[in-house]
Amino acid sequence: MNDPRDLQPAARSAEPGQEIERLIQLLARLPGLGPRSARRAALHLVKRKDALMVPLAGAMAEAVEAVGICSTCGNIDTSDPCHVCSDPRRDHSMIIVVEDVSDLWALERANDAGGSMNALYHVLGGTLSPLDGIGPDDLSIPALVDRAQDDAVSEIIIAVNATVEGQTTAHFITDRLEGADVAISRLAHGVPVGGELDYLDEGTLSAALRARTKL
Amino acid sequence: MNDPRDLQPAARSAEPGQEIERLIQLLARLPGLGPRSARRAALHLVKRKDALMVPLAGAMAEAVEAVGICSTCGNIDTSDPCHVCSDPRRDHSMIIVVEDVSDLWALERANDAGGSMNALYHVLGGTLSPLDGIGPDDLSIPALVDRAQDDAVSEIIIAVNATVEGQTTAHFITDRLEGADVAISRLAHGVPVGGELDYLDEGTLSAALRARTKL
User: Fold this and answer.
1) Using the beta-carbon criterion (under 8 Å), do A7 and B89 form an inter-chain contact?
2) B117:A66 CB<8 A
3) Which domains does chain B possess?
């Protein structure tokens, strides 16, 4: 057996080429992928060039061209105003206020399932967080106040997350909307459909008890 | 409040446009990303068009062009033969047999850290698995037997995973290499560096005991 110490070290590591290294680094910046899983994903892509990497690169290039942010509500879509804002069959008197586009998509999935409001949306772009330096001007709150002045709008449904930051933001928005002639509501708290009481926290359970409905 | 039931359902959901939908579907095929996290990743990409999506699409397009599989060892690289196989400072008398390119990369990281063999590699492309219909011909075993006939090769180090499939494959390879004039070895079993005995399984502990080294 040759002693490996007799050999000079290799000029560079066998870890991919520069191209793959760069691919790994960029993939690692996706949420849900760390450095390890980014390497795995890159390998997966390289092994499935024609079946996956080519179409994915194409889909991204297309999305870069086609997709933008709706100047009215902050939704991400291929048209501006987005197809929700420009849909005449929507109820334009109600605006559902969400933290993020992902929340809008989640509510629209409920809408597709027949359970939602078919209303308009307003994406805040986050929650108030003084510690992170995120104040009212960093969120799309002034634009919401403007929209609320519109006579056509009669109700604002605040659908922020039930976290401390979300609730702080909800209070702030309620204050700022005081002058506007709109009803303000928030999502109900309660037991998730399909949820087991045993696994729920006390806060949810007592909220569900307080908001009990007659059968 | 308007009754939403008075309104006709929206023509299509607000969930992205077709472009984003396709991006989500393709991202969901990456290992480590499910449908939910793929949606999150797509949103992340769309929000960071210039900082992330454009470079990532570019990096993929580049990798599609540049990267291929080494016809000698099965490594993934920008040249064929890959830079490991074509590196004259490598020890060309030793071939380390691995299941997958990711294992090759892992061993090369050990190499960079100064602890590996600076040898050549051979990527099998998996392990024998009769239940999944993976037989010897589906792996790069004939090519390995060919390489072992080369007079320059004196040792084959079998570095497959310490799983049942890996060990079965190792036995099979050992049988097939019987005629060749090479030493065959496998990775040592033992306590991982930094590992705590308390958390190790009995198999590893008794292997480490049997293979104890004198101080």
Assistant:
1) yes
2) no
3) 15-66 (1.10.8.420), 79-214 (3.40.1360.10)
